[in-house]
Amino acid sequence: MDLRRAPADSADPDRLHPAYDVGDHLHPNGGGHAVMAEAVADVLQAGQ
Fold first, then answer.
1. Do 30 and 14 form a contact (C-beta atoms < 8 A)?
2. Distance of alpha carbon 19 from alpha carbon 13, whole angstroms
């Protein structure tokens, strides 16, 4: 599972989406952590 994809900017997948950026362009904020947690939950629920 690549957790970098969950909070990534669709226009530039190598960067955090501005809505999920804590401000340093490297670490996710609370919203970014939430979308990563949702991605993990989706995989676990799918049994992968």
1. no
2. 14
Under the banding of pLDDT at 50, 70 and 90, the label for residue 13 is very high
What is the reported pTM? 0.85
Strands (E), the chain: 8-9, 12-16
3-class DSSP state of 34: helix
Number of domains in the chain: 1
In a domain, 34, yes or no: yes
Residue 45 φ/ψ, nearest 5 degrees: -70, -30
pLDDT mean over 18-31: 97
Give the whole-angstrom CA distance, residue 34 versus residue 6. 9
